[in-house]
Records
---
Amino acid sequence: MRYLPLSDDDRSAMLARIGAGSVDELFRDVPAEARLSGPIEGLPLHASEMAVERQLAAMARKNMVAGEVPFFLGCGAYRHHVPASVDHLIQRGEFLTAYTPYQPEIAQGTLQVLFEFQTQVARLLGCEVANASMYDGSTACWEAIGMARRITRRKRAIISSGLHPHYVAVCRTMAKFTGDTLDLALPELAAATDAERLIASIDKEVSCVVVQYPDILGRIADLAPIAEAAHAHGALLVAVVTEPVALGLIKSPGEMGADIVVGEGQSIGVGLQFGGPYVGLFACREKHVRQMPGRLAGETVDAEGKRGFVLTLSTREQHIRREKATSNICTNSGLCALAFSIHMTLLGEKGLRRLAEINHARAVEVAERLAAIPGVELVNESFFNEFTLKLPIEARPAVHAMVEKRVLGGVSLGRLYPGEAALANGLVIAVTETVSNADVDALEAALREIVR
Amino acid sequence: MTVNPSGWKPAAPIAAASDAATVTGNRALMLEEPLIFEIGDNDSTGVDFEPQALAAQRLAGLERRAPINLPGLSEPQTVRHYTRLSRQNYAIDLGLFPLGSCTMKHNPRLNEKLARLPGFADIHPLQPKETVQGALELINSLAFWLIDLTGMHGVAMSPKAGAHGELCGILCIRAALEARGDARSVVLVPESAHGTNPATAAFAGYKVEDIPATKEGRVDLAALKLRLGPDVAAVMITNPNTCGLFEPEMKAISDAVHAVGGFVYCDGANFNAIVGKVRPGDLGIDAMHINLHKTFSTPHGGGGPGSGPVVLSEALSPYGPLPYTARTKDGVVHLVEEEDADEFSRAHFGGRLRSFGRMVAFHGQMGMFTRALSYILSHGADGLRQVAEDSVLNANYVLRSLEDVLDAPFAFSGPCMHEAIFSDKGFAEGFSTIDVAKALIDEGFHPMTMYFPLVVHGAMLVEPTETESKASLDQFIVALRSIAERARAGDQALKAAPIHAPRRRLDETLAARQPILSYKHPVPEGAESGAAAGIGGG
């Protein structure tokens, strides 16, 4: 077995030192009736690298690879080009095979990266501080609602109808157990967001208003009036960003008054990977930092007075506070945060802006071409790199029909909102810098034929 | 996991003799590296783009006007920055990393390669199911293995990490209790448990009470039985426990809990010790999370991403979260989502499937599933059993090679499982576990888990794992023996350790008292305080 270094001679010598006659003696606390006498029956035995590779490669071949077909899916996960050096660097063993930096003297690499990541995220989202990452955007969103409850000591959250339905589902699951009340609504296939409904719903009982920006249909709305209304009633504004590239071109939620900004960082540095692992972004005002969940890296000095970094404010966390912790979260998404940070460093301000401009310009082009197809309407007035079409037919079968033509032509709202007839004709199309002109031609031709 | 409550604080900077000789502060291969905010600027970039004509914008008048101040670097500068930083990290690839309860074993590179196959890495979670059959097959194959290795009934694959898996298990228990109209208020957790256990139970709305332990470091079954009653929703047990011991009465504990209508949650953090040797399902366990990043060797990555699938008993299976994986009577494993949950429930569960909801967007940690399955297939049923045996053998070898110089509080009661626990008893006045840990750093090892579990004074929890050779263990034992003897003798030099690491001991108290959590550009001399200091300009 290539991963196990002990030889039989080693094992005998070690058992002799221990004073045991056999390895089984070491398992004597396990009741005999529960002990398995040999390898579990019916399961295969160990295999060579080549054999394992063959088996997994066969599974991989059964999938339609995004990069090999015209591809237009978004809705919380986006396909961007990731520079080759990102994946090379995150595979350095010193990053890949390190643990959480609990021994800071020999973990300055990870700690400095996290400090840099926190700074990049805080600036991008327009906040004062950010943590060292969460599991993903959806869990970060729920944690933000919990944090707002702790800060305001109120338990009613108003959720925008433009919030990703999976994020809503996560919040609903958790709220059942924490006793939070969530005001929910379904989105409408219209250019206007539900900002007016949100503002009208805020009262003195509300802990926070949760708004996605851009929203699930790709729409962009000014958050400032919502922030103002929330603050007037002592509530917080939680903004959710699932496509952080957008912030290269549009104002950050923090700039518009959001108190907590969370997001999905997958877009930058992390591939699609069928949904995970991704990297949750979490930022807030400095005055609220002690209510923030998750790990934090902070600057300090060592015994020689040299600058160094440590995990800090751990008195918020479960390993110290146990049942009084701000969250049960223990792991963050360290390696994905590293990938995010490296990609962001490669882009820099200038590159991020350029990337965002290209995404937006291509999306505008594609939206206009598709909206020219008879029967197809563009729902959005505003959008970044993702917009919603209203088809003359249900979008779900249309998506499957496009697959027949080897086009991955967007996400149907029928998939995201099963059983909601009013949304069934909605098709969400994302357009990033990876989309070629030929891809757009193929999408347009496929859609034109299907809706005819 | 480990805790660092040292509270250590420097009185005054120690004379920096070690780097007095260089102008740069670098010492040969030990290279200092500034922050990106000190070397990059807003106009530099390491990415080139295709030409693109810019169309009229449709941004609702929300165009960004102020700079973000994200410094950029060219590719060579970027590669050098992160490579230099990486060299300030200890890692399994460099040496023994005996962090108890963390299972820091070798990470096979085959797994990295396979996770990067475009068929797994470059597929979108919302692609139509007919285009991702291979991905679903992979999730199902892994689910099949996890169910078989644990002797359980179903598995929730989506939890993102161990603590998230714990939450999943406890929410299943609460959902099952609610379904039978049986509101219960208490979850019992041993004092030796990971902090995530009580945090999870409290989050799910339960009152947390301690389970008493025996002097042998096990659950006190008689005391537990006295406490059990109709208010107890669940008992959370770690088995093998955090003292590195198997709970021999596990089946009796489960039976007692079931007899009063409660459920048994097992923290699977230490599954490595028993994989292929014992099936938790045979011990009456109802739910257990499996840390794929421990037992099945997906890389820890400097603190995640993890992955924490939860195996479930027949009683809890109907309540698992969506998306949901279960094997039906015909032997087929299904991945069920909102859109097909009802139909699946009617067809296979007589309409009893009552998921408590969704815990994450999408399907969970696919990238970790690929790596874990690659690991499992490489080992096979025989290799996994050998993993458990060698990990236990290695831990006992460490235990018996050190028990004469380090106090081993439970060694009298027999062998340990895959981790050996020691206390700081016998150290000279003023010496504690942290001094031993920091001295190990100078000897080229990552320290063991310190001060955890809380039930052992100055605990040192050593988990070598099965991927360490005898030679590697022998070197570690020699080093730790020497350090232990110095701690017993009160050698003051230990207090200065580490002296050979990239940094000396760091002031954690300062970091917590005056938190600096993001980079602030220094205000140039003579500028008025509060004036913007050309941020991002570098």
Note: The radius of gyration of chain A is 25 Å.
---
Amino acid sequence: MQIFDLEAEGLRTLNQTLQGQKDSTNQTSWEIVNPRGSHAIAVGLDAPIDVTVKGSTGYYCGGMNKQATITVKGSVGPGVAENMMSGKIVIEGDASQYAGATGRGGLLVIKGNASSRCGISMKGINIVVHGNIGHMSAFMAQSGNLVVLGDAGDALGDSLYEARLFVRGKVKSLGADCIEKEMRPEHIALLQDLLDQAGADAKPEEFTRYGSARELYHFNIDNAAAY
Amino acid sequence: MNENSKKTPPRTVPIQSSTFSNPINAEIRRAAATGIYDIRGGGAKRKVPHFDDLLFLGASVSRYPLEGYREKCETNVTLGTRFAKKPIELEIPITIAGMSFGALSGPAKEALGRGATLAGTSTTTGDGGMTEEERGHSKKLVYQYLPSRYGMNPDDLRRCDAIEVVVGQGAKPGGGGMLLGQKISDRVAEMRNLPPGIDQRSACRHPDWTGPDDLEIKILELREITNWEKPIYVKVGGARPYFDTTLAVKAGADVVVVDGMQGGTAATQDVFIEHVGQPTLACIRPAVRALQDLGMHREVQLIISGGIRTGADVAKALALGADAVSIGTAAMIALGDNDPRWESEYNALGTTAGAYDDWHEGNDPAGITTQSPELMARLDPVEGGRRLRNYLKVMTLEAQTIARACGKNHVHNLEPEDLCALTIEAAAMAGVPLSGTDWIPGTGGF
């Protein structure tokens, strides 16, 4: 276990050190202490290492992550795991806005609640939120899966493309072109797998699936009110 | 009085309305027939005060010129000197603006890379990610960081030479992108992670930051991911150039790009292009003043774009305080866009060479703004690159010619004092005297 005191050694040294780890590194376990809400902690990593952040972080924790597993023992500011490519990021507390924004792969697990715009413009990432999510979540979400064990706020999935949304609780309102869809066996299997990966105690059958009605895929003047 | 004049009394000559002109009436009829606004490519076509309204004074008794073929006039520029470990060194102060793969064909992107590299300058990706064609053929490549984040990934961030955070563009400050389904080939769709054939909307705001305070943190993240090596540009549309430049600098930009309303786009609403944003000429002095007020002029570099066509335009933009300019539409024309050789095909599309702007439809006879294999094969990227290189070289020679005539041994030594304006409007916008006077409208009170 490598212990890194962020307050003492600074952000630049932290990211340079973690980004410098290769696939073959034997320093596979890292603990960051004294994060104190700093921004851009553990961004741009690209090695199969485990990083635990002991405390809460600011913006963009784990941004553009590849391969690494990052666990935050606290809450995170806006844009956690933004544009993540692969790997896994687990937040033990709550997440602010834009969690998992534009993520292209990997798994983001938020054990608390996520604020507005969770999964905005997601492009392949899987996101599992144990609590609730805020308004405008999955706005323009392109692909991937967003799983919410709690409730969703207003305008869920507005202008959705091909991402799948699974919500166990209530949805305050659906956004433009987002509709409820049938849960078929393949969705049950997919959801079970994601719940297992996220350590979530829930049954797939309790969820409702939402997806795109695909009516905004080609501009049509009759749909102008939806734009 | 003859017999005819007795039969036909004098009548007023039919007068066309300036308000309801033929083009306006045609647009009303088109809107009434289709129920949809007009979408097109390019920038503002309306006449606005521009570089043509400025003149250089040249040398005189009190200013002596440099000898054209004997005394050097340098043109190099370094971009990103503020924070980046690896600033971009360019041989000429003319760069190629961001244009997306998707809007443009792969060979067109390759041609831009080839031409820019031969001329010693940079080219820029666009709203579709980075292609191998442009990375492979561009010695210096600027990677745009856009609201859509299509194709965005850390590997491409690290293999670019600079990052351009796009807040807006001159053709549509406050607007997002649009790429209609007919141009969404399988390759374009895969790069953007969307189904082929659908109309693609790009968001107008970034998904994970809002406002200058957030932008500062976003720039920090990008620097941390790229080891503080890459110059970071912030590109804004010509809306509020003084404040936008100020905020971009405060957010940590190395370079500010200001794009006026003549700057082109692949596709957006005509009403947006023609009615939102300010002319390029009106944007330069406020942006320079913002840098000067912050003590950052020349430390943070300023790139101006939107309607740059000639070496004279380049020289005028630099004289007003820019460090470099960027071209998009002009580069496409150099490759062959709107060339009269395709006139019969433009006619078949209901237009004419020089007016063709339906770039979004993918039927470009010149093979540039298309994803049709048959059409894109018309553009030879090697020949296209050679043409672009020639054009860039000519513009550079023209700018040098003017600079020497003004007694400058570097194009950056051109200054507002070298200029006068032909119109009151241009004088006010450029902050230079009206020709024949010492009057700069807007200064000195009433």
Note: The two ends of chain B are 59 Å apart (CA to CA).
